[in-house]
Amino acid sequence: xxxxxxxxxxxxxxxxxxxxxxxxxxxxxxxxxxxxxxxxxxxxxxxxxxxxxxxxxxxxxxxxxxxxxxxxxxxxxxxxxxxxxxxxxxxxxxxxxxxxxxxxxxxxxxxxxxxxxxxxxxxxxxxxxxxxxxxxxxx
Length: 139
Description:
Layout: H1 26-34, E1 40-43, H2 57-60, H3 68-73, E2 77-80, H4 85-97, E3 109-112, H5 116-124, E4 133-136
Parallel strand pairs: 1-2, 3-4
């Protein structure tokens, strides 16, 4: 297709529209195109209203250009939403405390709390190296 996701933790980029131009609908449209007819799509991603770093006003309001005609013609079913954090958080915490799970590999920055505002400004700007920020209170 000629598209690429430039780095984990950011929206897809269309190199034909300029390497710096995000297109948050790319991944969804790829899913629609690649799913077999009458298939199901589960979309738990981070598509939300109020994204100050969105590439345009519509995306910032949670409105994306989706290939609804293809979705409808293929008879696809769609499921969305965030994961049920409350359902899993205690179990996951116990796995972490027992040393059976180590989620720290996803953390790109491990910073003191005082650096939080700057770190999240960089995260919102989608700067390299700011895909998952963990903040720690000084001991």
